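Table S5 (text form). Sequence records supplied for joint modeling of the two-component complex.
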Amino acid sequence: MAMSFLRLEHIVKTYPGTDRPSVADFTLDVERGEFISLLGPSGCGKTTTLRMIAGLIEPTAGHICLDGKELTRTPVHQRGMGLVFQNYALFPHLDVAQNVAFGLEMRRVPKADVKRRVAEALELVQLGHLSGRRIKQLSGGQQQRVALARALVVEPSVLLLDEPLSNLDAKLRDTMRDEIRSIQQKLGITTVFVTHDQDEALATSDRIVVMSEGNIEQVGTPEQIYEHPSNQFVANFIGRVNLFDAEVRHTANGVAAVDVAGLGQMQAADDLGRPGQVTVLVRPHRLRINEAGRDDAHGTVESVVYVGDSIEYSVRVGTKAVAVQSVAGRHGRLERGTPVRLSWETSDALVLK
Amino acid sequence: MLGLTVPGLLGLAVSFLLPLLWLFRMSLNRGDSSGLIVEAISLDSYGQFLGDPYYWKMAWETTQLGVGVTVMTVLVSYPIALFLVRTESRFKGVLVALAIAPLLTSSVVRTYGWLVLLGNQGVVNSSLHSWGLIDEPLALINNKLGVYIALVEIMMPYMILALLAGFGRFNPELEHAAASLGANRWRTFWRVVWPLSMPGVLTGALLVFVLTISSFITPRLVGGGKVFYLATEIYDQATATLNWPFAAAISFILLGLFATVIVLYQRAIRRIEAQ
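The corresponding structure-token record, covering 628 residues in total, follows.
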């Protein structure tokens, strides 16, 4: 295997006066040009990890290597990484062009080149027309673009994004998300993106690192993370899920016959191949209502929420409320109290440890 | 809203504007060598001041004192203010209170404190002497040096307060941003921290300059009657020579100096805010 571009080796960060490390034994290899997300709830250590890569926080233990060179003790201003902050941290006393030029001036780039490269960077984020504006005259989205241009103009080895979208309104967030991804693809720049928003992570990343309480829960492509979460935490954090207590009867060829509490005999995909008590995961939109299947469970519609492109039902099966998402118009709209049968494709249910 | 300003404006008119008018009227009278005030409408007192190189020199030295004390106060207060803003110590509140606590003591008391420290038999001279570093005591009081030292210390709390207020809006993330863009600490300071602290520095400088050139107790006591500034001269003319018209005229010349500085300050602030 080729040597990875950015390598984090057993990184630990324990703040003085705390027992539990904020980041515990974090190891990760990032390939050149890869877009990787650190995803997790607040306090999971994702921002601390990003800041250790940037050099703003010194790790308690471990090594950070870039392109084969040890970087752990290199001060921030010599790391050559581009950083975009959650609050953008634009210099209020400088205008847009001066903000973008700052990093080039620190590198003593000749004046004529500075001008050209600033113009190019602003073009890249579609702000060419605002180069003379003061920062406080810009909208949130525009400030975000300036911050991105300022980080990119110095051609950093790695682009580090610290929740860059969390201060934008929902619509703008999606636009900026797609734009960041397309700029990253265009430049082929290695990017580490910190977010607590699973949709952002799924939409942008080549790979996602799901973190909780300082630990890595799972590393994988968006598909792997979504379809094959390695544990309940990841399953719960990424998208909506139904989790059923179940017992594996027997497993053959990656398919387990399971006894699901309240539902009865069902089948589920099983990579673990272990008998005994397990959890079975089924996404709400993978559950079928009133379809002829081999195994099905009987329940009653308890609530109906119409959200435009789909209808979200809560179906009572025994003591359990099961979330079901169904494409609107597929079988009309079921009323409360309607008795229904629920089923799933074997491959749509997953046995978790 | 406007009605609420009436009591304050009335108070100002009675306690400030009327005496000022009276003082202006006084400056137009003629002072007699015997101490008598001769009613007149004349600019003789102003002429006496402007026609005498001695007073020009005094005005110049007063301006020098104001600028010198202001610059030195900025130099010694800035690091303290920066430390107080940045510290994550749980004693931060206590430290800030300590830095501005000298305001609780009268400047007369603090001036006497400096006399004790800087005098010929003072703490500084006797220490240096006992360590064998000097034979003769250094002249630290009854001269300009002593006045500068004492005034800088007396003005520091005002400067620190103004700087802290100015730093209040400073976002430490800006320093991180500068560092991530390749700026070392030195360049981060000059390109980011210092320009952003300018409003605080200017406000503190205005305050300290005005307080310095109008202070007379400290120059009087530490100067030992041997250094002369406009404020001490006004006092002498009013109480010793009893030439009230002349004292009033110098007061208005000093007021003119204030006005000039305030205009300069507002221009500078406007330029910063236009950014």
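Note: The two ends of chain B are 31 Å apart (CA to CA).
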